[in-house]
């Protein structure tokens, strides 16, 4: 869910490409080169060009050292107090560990595969803020270098399970830059005084050529048999699902030279991957469709938003892409005028766009909806003339932080439904929670039902009484199963009380919280809800971490298995289970 900002560097490449371009009349045979006057002249000037390049390189290095001295002298890095308890970072293991301590039993029909979760694990002890002559700038709680935590499940031919745990940072380009320096390189550049944030961007660029970090800390997804770590500030990084080694940025980076949503979706039937990239400069939002084999960008279009809406997710149906244009925006002009870089404005408009899979900006049908902030789409699908969109919706934004003037829990999300009539333009909105006092987020479904009508969804349930030290950061004290087609209305003699849809809960003991929950489909399962929820769980009283497996057919029942982790696993963001067939 990280919101760090990055910028394309296309202009930097245009010059180098034009220098290397070969005139069309030049032969490939070297013995003809002396007969070409232009090349003869170029040969005589090459030593001069080389000297100029050396001078420029020396000047750049000299400027870089001066900037380093200036930043080291006038910027004070301060640890933020948020990262206490299980928000604090951990060290890499260095090598995978065998896990033997299990309470209960892993089901025999649980699939082989890897349960993997991404999340922030800041370098150098934690998130930072800085004080300088320009003012204060600060990281926000969703920042921090991405670290992958993974459990590999492998069943032998005798039916016994081998479970291996590992963790590892995602080694982006900026991660490697800071590791080589062994101290912070990037100044916080999201929250704070506008002059301080602008100066942070400038000094970051002067010292590294990057305006901000590429932290890849939000999600992990699979496409065409390859696995990727991602945050929407940059391109995804391909990872080795077993060793967790970072391989490289996705090879589509030449065709898709912009950020990439944290939640790309596979289109039903075709298996194409639909993505969205937002930036604070025009074009603000671009939709892309990637071939099922992952080798080609088959469609790329500017959808011509007139603001940079911080779209964290994108939806798909069998025929459409679903765009959430809500009033949580990144605005450089606002920053230059002394305002916030990221801001939620509940007085601004909100709308949902329904776009044909390979459409353009003119083909999008926009539906005005009540102002809100929705980071996560549960699912979207077509139902007759309507497109149904379900998501986790709040009335304020947790990023960069809730508005102090808002109601107490406006920043916490509830499950919500929009029905958008493609023929009449009518919008029907409904709070699926009814009058229940329940808040939830990080939704998940059976992945076989993405983009089509479904009956069930699962979420992490917020414990609104839990306080994560100095900031409003939610903790999740349980899980919910949503029966999307079943009502739980309660009747009395005088009135009908709307309790919304039917929900079941699996709650943890006091001061115990989950994160990174994912649905695991049962091998050979037929029904949509035939499977398990797997999740990391941490007990703050004992400071112990576990992985729990919960049967979704017996959701309120006892946990099927509790796997004791060999070390603490910090709270993180999104998890996924990747079914993989192993051979003995």
Keywords, please?
globular; 584 residues; mainly beta; 38 strands
Describe this protein's structure.
- The longest helix has 38 residues.
- The N terminus is likely disordered.
- With 584 residues, the protein is mainly beta.
- The chain has five helices and 38 strands.
- Strand 35 and strand 36 form a beta hairpin.
Provide a brief overview of the structure.
The protein is mainly beta and 584 residues long. Helix content is 13%, strand content 36%.
Average pLDDT value?
87
Beta-strand share of residues: 35-45%
**Estimated structural class:** mainly beta
Given the C-alpha coordinates, what overall shape results?
globular
The low-confidence parts are 2-43, 490-494
How far is it from the N-terminal to the C-terminal residue, by CA? 38 Å
Q: What composes the largest sheet? A: 5 strands, antiparallel
Proportion of residues in helical segments: 10-25%
Radius of gyration: 26 Å
Strand segment count: 38
Write out the strand line-up for the largest beta sheet, numbering strands in chain order: 2-8-7-4-38
Task: Specify the number of helices.
Answer: 5
Protein topology:
Blueprint lengths: L9 H11 L16 H38 L1 E4 L17 E3 L2 E3 L8 E5 L10 E5 L2 E4 L8 E9 L5 E9 L3 H9 L9 E2 L1 H15 L10 E5 L2 E5 L6 E3 L6 E4 L15 E2 L6 E6 L6 E6 L6 E6 L12 E2 L3 E6 L2 E3 L1 H5 L5 E3 L5 E7 L8 E5 L3 E11 L2 E9 L19 E8 L5 E5 L8 E5 L11 E7 L13 E12 L2 E2 L4 E2 L3 E7 L4 E10 L9 E9 L4 E8 L9 E4 L10 E5 L5
Antiparallel strand pairs: 1-5, 2-8, 3-37, 4-7, 4-38, 5-6, 6-9, 7-8, 10-11, 11-12, 12-13, 14-15, 15-16, 16-17, 18-19, 19-22, 20-21, 22-23, 24-25, 25-26, 26-27, 28-29, 29-30, 30-33, 31-32, 34-35, 35-36, 36-37
């Amino acid at each position: 869910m990280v919101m760090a900002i990055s910028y394309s560097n296309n202009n930097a490449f245009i010059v180098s490409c034009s220098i290397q371009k070969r005139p069309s009349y030049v032969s490939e045979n070297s013995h003809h080169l002396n007969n070409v006057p232009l090349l003869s002249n170029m040969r005589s000037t090459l030593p001069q060009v080389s000297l100029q390049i050396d001078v420029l390189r020396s000047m750049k290095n000299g400027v870089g050292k001066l900037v380093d001295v200036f930043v080291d002298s006038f910027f004070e890095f301060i640890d933020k107090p948020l990262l206490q308890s299980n928000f604090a970072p951990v060290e890499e293991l260095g090598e995978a560990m065998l896990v033997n301590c299990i309470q209960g039993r892993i089901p025999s029909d649980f699939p082989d595969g890897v349960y993997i979760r991404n999340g922030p694990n800041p370098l150098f002890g934690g998130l930072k803020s800085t004080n300088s002559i320009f003012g204060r700038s600060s990281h926000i709680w969703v920042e921090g270098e991405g670290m992958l935590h993974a459990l590999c499940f492998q069943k032998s031919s005798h039916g016994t399970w081998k479970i291996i745990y590992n963790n590892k940072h995602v080694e982006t380009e900026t991660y490697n830059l800071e590791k080589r320096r062994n101290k912070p390189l990037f100044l916080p550049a999201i929250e704070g005084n506008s002059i301080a944030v602008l100066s942070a961007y400038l000094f970051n660029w002067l010292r590294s050529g990057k305006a901000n970090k590429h932290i890849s800390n939000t999600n992990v997804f699979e496409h065409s048999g390859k696995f990727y770590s991602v945050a929407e500030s940059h391109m995804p990084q391909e990872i080795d699902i077993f060793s967790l080694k970072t391989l490289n940025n996705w090879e589509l980076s030449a065709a898709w030279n912009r950020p990439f949503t944290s939640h790309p979706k596979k289109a039903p039937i075709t298996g194409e991957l639909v993505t969205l990239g937002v930036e604070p400069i025009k074009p603000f939002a671009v939709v892309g469709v990637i071939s099922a084999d992952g080798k080609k960008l088959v469609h790329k279009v500017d959808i011509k938003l007139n603001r940079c809406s911080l779209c964290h997710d994108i939806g798909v149906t069998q025929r459409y892409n679903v765009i959430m244009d809500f009033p949580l925006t990144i605005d450089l002009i606002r920053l230059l005028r002394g305002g916030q870089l990221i801001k939620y404005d509940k007085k601004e408009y909100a709308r949902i766009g329904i776009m044909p899979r390979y459409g353009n900006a003119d083909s999008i049908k926009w539906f005005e909806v009540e102002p809100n902030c929705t980071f996560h789409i549960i699912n979207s699908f077509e139902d007759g003339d309507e497109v149904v969109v379900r998501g986790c919706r709040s009335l304020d934004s947790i990023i960069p932080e809730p508005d102090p003037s808002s109601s107490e829990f406006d920043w916490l999300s509830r499950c919500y439904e929009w029905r958008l009539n493609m023929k009449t333009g009518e919008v029907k909105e409904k709070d699926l929670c009814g009058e229940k006092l329940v808040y939830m987020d990080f939704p998940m479904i059976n992945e076989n039902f993405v983009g089509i009508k479904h009956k069930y969804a699962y979420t992490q349930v917020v414990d609104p009484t839990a306080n994560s030290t100095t900031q409003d950061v939610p903790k999740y004290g349980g899980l919910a199963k949503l029966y999307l087609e079943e009502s739980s209305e309660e009747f009395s003699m005088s009135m009908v009380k709307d309790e919304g849809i039917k929900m079941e809960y699996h709650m943890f003991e006091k001061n115990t919280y989950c994160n990174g929950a994912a649905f695991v489909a049962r091998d050979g399962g037929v029904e949509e809800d035939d499977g398990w929820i797997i999740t990391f769980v941490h007990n703050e009283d004992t400071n112990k971490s576990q992985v729990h497996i919960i049967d979704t057919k017996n959701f309120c029942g006892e946990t099927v298995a509790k796997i004791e982790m060999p070390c603490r696993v910090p709270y993180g963001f999104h998890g996924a289970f990747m079914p993989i067939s192993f051979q003995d």
